[in-house]
Amino acid sequence: MMKEQRQEKMSGTAADQPTMGARTGLPNRTLAAAFAVLGYATLIGYTDNYVRVVAVEAGLWQFHLIRTLMAAAVFFAVAPVLGLDLRPKSWRAVAGRSALHGGAMLIYFGCLAFLPVAQVAAGLFTAPIFVLLIARFVYGHALGPARILAAAVGFLGVILALMPGTEAPLGWASVLPIAAGALYALGNIATREWCVGESAATLTLGFFVALGAAGLLGVLALAVVPLPVAAGADGFIARGWVWPTGTFLYWTAVQAVGSMVAVGLVVRAYQLAEASRVAIFEYVILPIAALWGWFLWGETLGWVALVGMALIVAAGSAIVWRGQPDA
Q: Where do the domains of the chain lie?
């Protein structure tokens, strides 16, 4: 009987076997985390393709405020039905983690006002590099050569996919998108290190509340000190409160529900495995978003971008199938 149990434990791929986190002692369920991130990327890739529709009619701050109100309404409506406990076990930990991720997203969207999307996204996707550095030098997680190599290959893929050499130089403004990447990395680390025992629903709601609070402050500030607003999407950052149209409300609701489920999935992923593992999987959002762009808007990619995306997928796949404590 014991022999059969030992054989059963040894069966299956390495990715199927949970490994132990270096600091928390929690098992690393690498494959489950990868599937959670895949679901997150599929939803986010779809909903984010429609931000361009919202940006034509309303402002960034109003968008975040209304989206948070919609998401909160859904949360509190389904919580009793699903038995969700939305109260944080540690208010400080949840607030800190929410502020980090909320700040990263505000910088990311804010940079879109004066930098090309490709450059901003390249800065944000430096997050896995920061995750590896923080995990190693702050928390003492062991990082083997395979994960370091995968991170390097994945980041090279980001550069090829999003910066094919035709964009203007970043200059000093490159600090801002990279700052978003650093904050996002810190938020990912915080999910695992600070928020052990917190539910995915609590952390997801906290993320929305942080962005909603920032949206409210932005709307109030622009009401007191209005800024010149360009027409259409160019005025997304400087635009204050406007009367919401049906189109705005519809796509904001789609964003609210889609993002709520997607963020919940990625939060769960970071609870299932160490941040230095999960961060690599997030690269998959790039090819999935590109596929949605092609399907929805007919956008196509050149061969350099396709090579970059192949490298991104290869890097994530390598981490999944390694699935070892020192990978």
A: 28-144+169-276
